[in-house]
Amino acid sequence: MNDGVRWFLDNPNIQVFISFTVKITAPCLKKIRYSPYQQKLWEIIKEKHDSGMGYRRISYWLNEHGYKTTRGHEFKNTHVFSILKKKRIADERMIKRFEQKIEN
Question: In the chain, which end has fewer C-beta atoms inside a 10 angstrom radius, N or C?
Answer without folding.
Answer: C
